[in-house]
Amino acid sequence: MTARVGAWDALRGAAIALVMLRHAWPDVFPGAGVVGVVMFFALSGHLITGLLVDEAQETGRVDLRGFWWRRLRRLVPALVVLVVGFVVVTLTLDPLGDVDTLGRSVAVSLTYTANVPSVGLVGVSPAIYHLWTLATEEQFYLVWPLVVVLAVRAGRLRTGVALAGLVAALLCVVTVVWFRADPDAAYPLATSWLGCFVVGAASRVLQDRWPRPATGPAAVAAAVALLAVLSVVDLRGHAATYLLAGPAVAVATVVLVQAGRRHVTLRPAWRPLVALGTVSYGAYLWNYPLTLWLRPTLDDATGLVAVPATLLAAAASWWLVERPVQRAGRRPRAPAGVTAGR
Fold first, then answer.
1. DSSP for 106-151?
2. Quick one: DSSP state of residue 101?
3. What is the average pLDDT across 215-240?
4. How far apart are the first and last CA of the chain?
5. pTM reported for the whole predicted model
6. Residue 91: predicted pLDDT
7. pLDDT tops 90 at residue 256
């Protein structure tokens, strides 16, 4: 199966760092949130496709129910803890003055519908706005395995991914045209970002044919430079964000992913970023609500407190919730060459 690669954890760390910078200092890093989120989308496309393809090659089939159960086990427990914390803070302190939206906010959070038009980010607390990305991820996890299974059965995996890319591009164009009067309204919609997942998926399917110069120092430097520049550009409210900037960030990310295949472990200097990547899910869950809850009191100093508070919450989420649940659900691997029973 796909190995855990240190460089990919570092990429996760970079992605969540950009998201936190955007939340803490939006005037300085206006585009960092978009860049970080798209990096996560492209990484998910690459890694999830790898898991599915590897399983199909090793066992001759894909256990869809097993895949979906593992995704739920990985993501839901930490989300439930966040929702419990959100309920406690809202009922006791109500820092945003939106206790009347509590019930709907909880329902939207736990049903992964924050990105559904007229359902998600309507009448809910701003503290859960960021969960639109998790809804988008979960919907990708629900649909994409079916695409991969059908393509593998037909013996046309690359063709299937290419067709998915065309569909994703068409859906993005339709979305942009539909919301041309208010491009920012398309921001939380899955159809605005589906292509970024497919870029990641394509990089996994084509990794054996990936041109070596595209993983060299010049390509890596160009990818990093693009991500850095877009992080300080205001990307919200522009159709070009969905049509150009998002796909460009996804391509830059997969360049770094392919380069990272050669670095399963990294030099000690990269360990803080790798550690941040390890706890990136908890950090993403907690950073936005913590930032919003602290801002009315701390104003411009919010980031100085929200960032360390996020790191503490993320560490607690990893060590007390995510890691124990993963370990409890892990089954012994079969010896090499033996197909594990399903």
1. HHHHHTT-TTSTTTTTSSS-GGGGGGHHHHHHHHHHHHHHHHHHHH
2. G
3. 95
4. 16
5. 0.93
6. 98
7. yes
